[in-house]
Specification:
heterodimer, A: alpha+beta, Sufe protein. Chain: A, 3-stranded antiparallel β-sheet, 5 helices, 20% strand, globular, B: alpha/beta, Aspartate Aminotransferase, domain 2, Aspartate Aminotransferase, domain 1, 2 domains, 7-stranded mixed β-sheet, 4-stranded antiparallel β-sheet, 40% helix
Chain lengths: 133, 397
């Protein structure tokens, strides 16, 4: 294996957390593309400004699965504002490092989360606007 | 203790016990320099001569047409650049294929920068070149054609004999190089019958030690040494010869050829059992490369749709099963295998490719074990994948 992973990455790869589909999520987003070999689908459920539940599905390598696992663990129960602040660097650090060539997996996971929060907030605005009617 | 099932023999192989035994005396008894005049030197020299004889016999060549190198990569580099530089005054056109090993491709790319004109033959869906296309590309400037015997990823056996025949019929001399690293000891090679001028062999793929390769160079071939320096006993390749390695290489070849039919049919049986087992037990799989007699007896390469190869490889590793993947994610360049791309496999399917490569040491019981474990791994990874047949169609796959 030319790419060397930390123990933590392999642990989260073999026993992924928060992985699977979610019923009735508030938001579903996809990030990445199977053509590039990396893709993540993220489900989000929000209550009172907090991430009540978060799940993901992965088409990708060990790093893809591990970053999705640790990120969902990191932000579950956090407020949206707190979750927005999570960066790819935080993800990589939590995994005790990622090979440089695999940093894009952390970027992909962080992007998916930020996109999910953004979509959620957009949908909220629409709902509020619709209410007075 | 966790068991090991080694199915990565295309990458490298276990060194045979008999090979190690044959090598040992050349490290601590006959350790002299082959160019020295004393008895220890002479023993080393004779060992090289003897080894060249053994190897030459297996491909119907003469012993002094065998040059030992440090590996297959060096032999390929020597063949391509050596012939290109030595024959440049005659022409600058070289033809090779789109599915060669990087040890050819990197060299032809380098030669292109130096003003050589390189044409890359297309391959069909199973990886076969088209000899007619080759014929159409030949010009008066063509000095060299290089076609691999067996593809290292998908096991396609190229029509080497036909290419040799075509080149023999040309008026001008066009050198014919064949990289036989993936076929040696598995598919018969006769350099006279196939009209091959240069042939690359590697020791560590045939249960010999790493660090030794060989280049067969037909007598009379115009070739320039690439490595420059101290000439020991090989006129075209300087440097002190790896005597124990060379002895081991020859021993490995000797064993393989003494039992050629037995070993090859054993591997072929395991290959067909594995292919059938995968296709019968796992849905949505795609075999890369041809079937039957036109496929290397030791190669099995499948894509498992909707999941990615590095993840499959690492999961199998947890069960002690060692395989390789053509996925971009497992390569340093993050590009899918150029071989799978050349045969028209879409990237999202190439990412899910796994190569199982067999050796004579593999057993039927090991294949049963793989066929027990593999469906579980594939199912587990598919259960966490966002891709489905429909989504893949949408993305253009």
């Amino acid at each position: 294996m030319p790419i060397k992973y930390s123990k933590k990455v392999l642990e989260y790869f073999m026993n992924p957390k928060n992985i699977g589909e979610m019923e009735n999520p508030d938001v579903v987003v996809e990030e990445g593309n199977p053509v590039c070999g990396d893709m993540l689908r993220m489900y989000l459920k929000v209550r009172d400004g907090r991430i009540e539940d978060i799940k993901f599905l992965s088409f990708g390598c060990a790093a893809n699965i591990a970053t999705g696992s640790i990120l969902t663990e990191m932000v579950k129960g956090k407020t949206l504002e707190e979750a927005k602040k999570v960066t790819m660097k935080d993800i990589a650090e939590k995994l005790e490092g990622l090979p440089p060539i695999k940093m894009h997996c952390a970027i992909l996971a962080a992007k998916a989360l930020h996109k999910a929060i953004e979509e959620y907030e957009k949908s909220k605005v629409k709902n509020n606007y619709a209410k007075p009617k | 203790m966790k068991r090991t099932v080694y199915l990565d023999n295309e990458r490298t192989t276990i060194v045979a016990k008999e090979v190690i035994e044959a090598m040992l005396p050349y490290m601590n008894e006959y350790y002299g320099h082959p160019a020295s005049l004393h008895m220890l030197g002479q023993q080393a020299y004779e060992a090289i001569e003897q080894s060249a004889e053994t190897i030459a016999e297996t491909i119907n060549a003469k012993p002094d047409e065998i040059v030992f190198t440090s590996c297959g990569t060096e032999a390929n580099d020597f063949a391509i650049r050596g012939v290109a530089y030595a024959n440049r005054s005659r022409g600058n056109h070289i033809i090779t294929t789109k599915i060669e090993h990087p040890s050819i491709m990197r060299i032809t790319e380098e030669l292109a920068k130096q003003g050589f004109k390189i044409d890359y033959l297309e391959v069909d869906k199973e990886g076969f070149i088209n000899v007619e296309q080759l014929e159409n590309l030949l010009t008066d400037e063509t000095i060299l054609v290089s076609v691999m015997h067996v593809n290292h990823e998908i096991g396609t056996i190229e029509p080497i004999k036909e290419v040799g025949k075509l080149l023999r019929e040309r008026k001008q001399k066009i050198y014919f190089h064949v990289d036989a690293q993936s076929s040696y000891t598995k598919i018969p090679i006769d350099v006279q019958d196939f009209n091959i001028d240069l042939l690359t062999l590697s020791s560590h793929k045939i249960h010999g030690p790493k660090g030794v390769g060989a280049l067969y160079i037909r007598q009379g071939t115009k070739i320039e040494p690439i490595l420059k320096g101290y000439i020991s006993v090989q006129r075209l390749r300087p440097g002190t010869e790896n005597v124990p390695g060379i002895v081991g290489f020859a021993k490995a070849a000797e064993i393989a050829f003494a039992n050629f039919e037995k070993y090859v049919s054993h591997m072929r049986n395991l290959r067909d059992k594995l292919i059938k087992g995968i296709e019968d037990n796992i849905p949505e799989v795609l075999l890369h490369g041809p079937r039957g007699d036109k496929r290397s007896p030791s190669n099995v390469n499948f894509s498992f749709k909707y999941i990615e190869g590095e993840s499959i490889t690492l999961h199998l590793n947890m069960y002690g099963i060692c395989v390789s993947t053509g996925s971009a994610c497992a390569s340093r360049k993050l590009e899918p295998s150029h071989v799978l791309t050349a045969i028209g496999v879409p990237p999202e399917i190439a990412h899910g490719s796994i190569m199982f490569s067999l050796s004579r040491y593999n057993t039927e019981e090991e294949i049963n074990y793989v066929l027990d474990v593999l469906p579980k791994v594939i199912e587990k990874l598919r259960s966490i994948s966002p891709l489905t047949p429909e989504s893949l169609k949408k993305s253009g796959g």
